[in-house]
Design goal:
29% helix, alpha+beta, five-stranded antiparallel beta sheet, single chain, 133 residues, 5 strands
């Protein structure tokens, strides 16, 4: 699957990745946005679908897709969902992750496929050393 992000979406992605690199180099944890009852999850089965719907420094949008970074102890977690909360294929999620993590060798990205969201994990240092931003 291929898609063509707009110039605005590209600029947003570059800004987010640069922020991820800055936080990583400073040793600052990237946290998910605080719970907001106004944008609360649609149901408990798919709780992560609405994570990142709040505007925050580590959330981006590419067409119909939304992506959100979260820092874990030794990994960065990249979540990809559809803005309308419908399912997306692993290939669609991989296309978004490939664009967002441009420069990071795919062999360094661990992929956990799902039905409603796709999840990617990559070492902090692998992003800092390889990402094109």
């Amino acid at each position: 699957m291929t898609f063509d992000p707009t110039n605005e979406e590209r600029a947003q992605c570059i800004a987010i990745i640069r922020r991820v690199v800055e936080y990583t180099q400073a040793g600052t944890t990237i946290k998910l946005p605080a719970y907001n009852p106004e944008t609360a999850r649609p149901n408990d089965r798919f709780a992560l679908l609405s994570v990142g719907f709040e505007e925050n420094d580590f959330r981006g949008r590419m067409g119909e897709f939304v992506y959100q970074f979260e820092g874990e102890e030794d990994l960065l977690h990249l979540m990809v969902t559809r803005a309308n909360l419908t399912s997306l294929t692993p290939e669609e999620g991989q296309a978004v992750a490939s664009f967002v993590l441009d420069g990071v060798p795919p062999a360094l990205v661990w992929f956990k496929p799902g039905e409603q969201s796709q999840h990617f994990y990559v070492g902090h240092d692998d992003v800092v050393a390889n990402v094109n931003a």
